[in-house]
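Message: A physicist's question: would you kindly supply an amino acid chain plus fold tokens?
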Amino acid sequence: MGYTIEQLEVGQQASFSKTVSEFDVYMFAGISGDFNPAHIDQTYAEQTAFKTRIAHGMLSAGFISTVLGTQLPGPGTIYISQSMTFLAPVTIGDTITATAEVVEINAEKKRVRLKTVCTNQSGREVLTGEALVSPPRG
């Protein structure tokens, strides 16, 4: 069981890191149905502004879900909403770290607002946003 609303504190944070592989990109395309050639066709991708294939933005967003569902608040958490701004491309071989930080606790409504960010191995933010969740009940 994850953290209940009574166990959470503003400023508390957790992270998850993963190196994005070619396999991850192909699997995400298959699971999501998003076969945009910018993700799976190197010849096509070389003609884009990025000059190489990029990972699906929602793949990085999924890493935020990993943090929320497994660490903070953790198992039993219900995801209510997520806002996101994509700031930079993620390429195959990038190591992405998703971090969630508690910024507001509404005990009356049993809701927690978290700042969410994904950074690459250079510390560059590739995605920022905010999540609203209902933590597990004790």
